[in-house]
Amino acid sequence: MVAALLLLAACTTSTASVAPSSTLPSSTGVATTGETVPTTAAPTTAAPTIVSTTTVLAPTTLGPTTEVPATATPATVLTPATGGPATLAGRPADFLGEETIGSSFEGRPITAWHRGAAGGKVILVVGVIHGTENDGMKIVDQLSVAALPPGIDLWLLPMMNPDGVAHDVRGNGNGVDLNRNFPHDWTAISHKGNWQWSGPGPASEPETQAYMAFTERIHPALTLWYHQDLFRVSPSKGRDAPLRQAYAKLTGLPYETVDGPTSIYTGVAATWTRTTLPEAMSFIVELGSTLSVAEAAVHASAVLAVAQMA
Ligand SMILES: [Zn+2]
Asked: Which of 202, 256, 278, 287 is deepest in the core (most CB within 10 A)?
């Protein structure tokens, strides 16, 4: 468990940065700004091992921070800290490595964790692409230590938008909505300052480029993306339909279409992934506005279940 804690350090740190933004409803779980540390064990309600691990996530910031005040500092810590030895020190037995797949607009590393059966079925899970929709990181945390089914070659990308997480904004450090920046169906949307700005051109952003190069190399059979907070999985007519449906069923999410003008769904990462990479399936999971640790564990199990179907 201690090991797991360490492994999660990177992710935890980032979440920490989000904490102080009391603006957020409560999706980060850390509505309170800081001082009061309930009891490190506060939300330690539910599950076993992993839970206590991930539990640290929510009141996190404070927990470890209390002992090492320095760490408490903002997200800036991310830059030098990420990929640090602390993370690797906690690797599970099947940990295959950690790598920086690129840098954000503001120079923060984009880190990927690799574990499971090298050469097996490649599954990729992206915790965060919109910086204000962070609860997917809790699921990534669970997956970083969960027992994996045989034959799964698992890659975890806690966040492909570290700038957004650091600043608690949707876009990257350049103000671009990364999920409108991918080259598939890219359309110019709005301008800098708009929450859905597509960027000046397709794949203009370093995060988008890093993700593309990374996935073109690892060829994931299935990629999962977490967003908030429409609370659903959208149906599909594609090959991934049974997986989507199974995921919805396993997690209790409605299997329902997202309404709204389709025009705003251009340059989407999941769509680029499944239309560009050979044989790739890729879909979005819209979480609710909050995600408890116990719920994150359910989602992690669902990921591993659909991974076996891929
Ligand atoms: Zn989103």
From this structure: 287
